[in-house]
């Protein structure tokens, strides 16, 4: 693992307070260490459960805090469930007096095909991966507004492109895409920037997807996709110098790419089922004009224009 102080200069986050949910995991731990080494006050939130959200132990969060303090950093452990958003924020405010950055890293998953997934799997995963981050932001938002400053990094997933046997997870992470765009719009007048990352890390959550691969493939994946390789992008999005908002980035392996949501120009005057069937291939042409709207207003303008042309 790279040394935490290799990721950013020592005073990059001086006097800033950051909450990292899932702060003891494969991405959370190196991220917390990096923030602390760069001068931040770190709230290490981690329930200590397994990948399904079951069980709890105070040890993982406390262990990360002990590691930070041993290196001279500032941190506090928080073992509340991410569903207890008000309590997590209270830990930050009572310990450090302010909140500047929130990294919504915590997540759980349930594996299996649709027919094997009981309905509660969807609600349980959605509650942790999508609803809980929004609850935490709900409580933090007035503080961000009052100080005209805030940085939010949500966690989405490359699985939104489609991934079999992981529907509860994909559902929740897909929702994060639209929520990030919406929060960016609401935060803009107040100096609050909201972005998302789709990280790749060989973790407890990811391991079951590779269990049927040959051992050498598993070893290569584990070697090349370490949690810390996602840290530089997250730090950049959390920094005061960040100027982008409403964007979603794919990270991992010390690389980055931008994830886009687009719409093609409309095909109009389709008044019957037969007309839709006849013109559907035209709509699916890869060369068709398209746009990447950053909000529904840009989309509506583009659609209206193309319908009228």
From TrEMBL:
Molecular-function GO term, any one: oxidoreductase activity
Pfam family, one: adh_short
Alphabetical UniProt keywords: Oxidoreductase
Gene3D superfamilies reported in the protein's UniProt record: NAD(P)-binding Rossmann-like Domain
Lineage top rank: taxon: Eukaryota
Domain Ketoreductase: 16-192
InterPro entries, per the entry: KR_dom, NAD(P)-bd_dom_sf, Peroxisomal_Beta-Oxidation, SDR_fam
SMART domains in alphabetical order: PKS_KR
PANTHER family listed in its UniProt record: DEHYDROGENASES, SHORT CHAIN, SCP2 DOMAIN-CONTAINING PROTEIN
Protein family according to the UniProt entry: Belongs to the short-chain dehydrogenases/reductases (SDR) family.
Protein's recorded name: NAD(P)-binding protein
């Amino acid at each position: 693992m790279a040394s935490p102080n290799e990721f950013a200069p020592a005073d990059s986050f001086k006097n800033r307070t950051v909450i990292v949910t899932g702060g003891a995991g494969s991405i959370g731990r190196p991220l917390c260490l990096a923030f602390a080494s760069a001068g931040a006050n770190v709230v290490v939130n981690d329930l200590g459960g397994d990948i399904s959200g079951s069980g709890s132990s105070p040890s993982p969060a406390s262990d990360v805090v002990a590691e930070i303090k041993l290196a001279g950093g500032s941190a506090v452990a928080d073992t509340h469930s991410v569903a207890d958003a008000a309590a997590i924020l209270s830990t930050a405010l009572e310990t450090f007096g302010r909140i500047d950055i929130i990294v919504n890293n915590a997540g759980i998953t349930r594996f299996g095909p649709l027919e094997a997934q009981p309905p509660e799997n969807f609600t349980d995963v959605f509650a942790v991966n999508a609803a809980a981050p929004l609850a935490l932001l709900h409580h933090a938002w007035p503080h961000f507004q009052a100080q005209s400053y805030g940085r939010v990094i949500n966690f989405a997933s490359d699985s939104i492109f489609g991934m079999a046997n992981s529907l509860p997870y994909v559902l929740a992470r897909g929702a994060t895409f639209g929520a990030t765009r919406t929060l960016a719009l609401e935060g803009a007048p107040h100096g609050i920037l909201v972005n998302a990352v789709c990280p790749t890390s060989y973790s407890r959550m990811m391991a079951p997807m590779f269990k049927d691969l040959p051992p050498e493939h598993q070893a290569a994946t584990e070697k090349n996709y370490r949690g810390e390789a996602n840290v530089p992008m997250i730090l950049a999005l959390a920094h005061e110098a960040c100027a982008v908002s409403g964007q979603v980035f794919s990270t991992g392996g010390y690389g980055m790419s931008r994830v886009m949501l687009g719409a093609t120009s409309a095909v109009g005057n389709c008044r019957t089922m037969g007309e839709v069937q006849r013109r559907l291939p035209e709509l699916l042409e890869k060369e068709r004009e398209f746009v990447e709207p950053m909000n529904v207003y840009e989309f509506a303008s583009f659609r209206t224009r193309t319908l009228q042309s």
